[in-house]
Amino acid sequence: MSRRPSTDVEKDTPITEKFEHNTKEDVQDGRILAFTPKEQKAIFRRVDIRLVITLGVLYCISLMDRTNLGAASVAGMQVELDMNAKNNGYTLVSLVFFLTYTIFQAPATVLIRKLGPRSFLAAIVVFWGATMIGFGFVPTWEVMLALRLILGALEAGFYPGCVYLMSTWYPRFELQKRNAGFYLIGSAAAGFGGILAYGLMQMDGLAGLSGWRWIFIMEGLLTCVLGIGSYFIIVDFPEDSPNSWSFLNQDEADFIVARIEKDRADTVVEPFSVWGYLKHAGDSKVWAMAMLYLLTTTNSYSIAYFLPIILQKGMGFSVAKAQCLVAPPYVAAAIVMYIQAIYSDKWRMRGPVIAGNALMGIVGLSLLGYMKGPAVRYFGVFLATIACNANCPALVTYQSNNVRGQWKRALTSATLIGGGSIGGIVGTTVFRAKDAPNYGPGILAGLIANALIVIIVALLTLKFYRANKRAAAGGKIIEGLEGFRYTY
């Protein structure tokens, strides 16, 4: 790709016409003007491959590794390890993951900034893959519980690290479709985890191991391989030296940085201090966003962990059908979330999309929980799965669009995903073994969570509208940057 200096623009072509996709501010920055719109898209396509696709594939493995308990359960894990309603072994093993996953979120976002995304992310993927292999050899559910604590600590740095890394590379209104693409790859492929698990179950008896053990062993091996490979693909932060990327030259790197500076002026990293990091916790919207993600993941984790069991015990499907029927709702969710992301970026609109999804979730859970026929209930599964999964990338973008500064971005990524991990705790505890097959308390908790999402989004929208109006009238500057406006 050749670099085109701003001085080479043809004299007979107006700059604003030659670069029709650039704004007036872009024209004033030679680092952006150096590339035509076609060249700019080509640069971002290369960034997308290194970030969205690579991280999305790893996220797929992450989701499968943390949620394959449901598949292993219907494959005989609960019976062999004596997990029952009396000891609540399955619920406890599901739950403890989120304890360490929550605790290590904030430290992990500091480490990724210090160690660099490539080294940090690749290392934790390999280590948790090795932990997954260990799941296949546990003698008791108590040992599995201990390994789940280790898995939670290792995975704690991955999702917030990915969210933080991608938010540093893209302007605010080009971010949701990237977040959706990342999440789409993960959730759609993870939806097929049930089918993969069913295939691995057929290894039952090989080397004297049960089929459910092979699910963990083979998926763990796959995780290790992908973790090693990712070290050679993942890139560091855009303001770092392009020598560590090799896929961009200096002019292209300058273009990326210039776009971020124009959008929100926060590529410069201040020296780390505990106070400089934690002071942003005083911002109320940080916790409102974390609460929204908590409420969304209460639904998404409930579905991920318990859908195979509900399909088998609640709707009467066979093990094979229960494993395979998990996939279609996730595929539908992937399609809807990406379409939503395209138009949400185009219209620069976040809150109404999130609230609309929550309303869809209320309808879906009502059908699943309170209707009789399996067809109607399965349709409810579609709506509920689409709603909570589509809201995950939407909420990540909603939060990213409304904060500035590297350390604030790091903290809010941690608090947001930390809220999500607490949602995982809620989702796994409200679905109790003794409530089978209908899981009434779990369904009710999901309905309440979606209703609260609508209320919180409405309050944030009012807050953002008033702040924007006040700033436009010459009042308080938003996020310390003149001209910055909230997205709602």
TrEMBL record:
Pfam families: MFS_1 (PF07690). The chain crosses the membrane at residues 47-64, 90-112, 119-139, 145-170, 182-200, 212-234, 286-307, 319-339, 351-370, 376-398, 410-431, 443-462. The keyword Transmembrane applies. InterPro entries: MFS, MFS_dom, MFS_trans_sf. The keyword Repeat does not apply. GO terms for molecular function: transmembrane transporter activity. It is a multi-pass membrane protein. One of its GO terms (cellular component) is membrane. Keywords: Membrane, Transmembrane, Transmembrane helix, Transport. SUPFAM superfamilies: MFS general substrate transporter. This is Major facilitator superfamily (MFS) profile domain-containing protein. It comes from Venustampulla echinocandica.
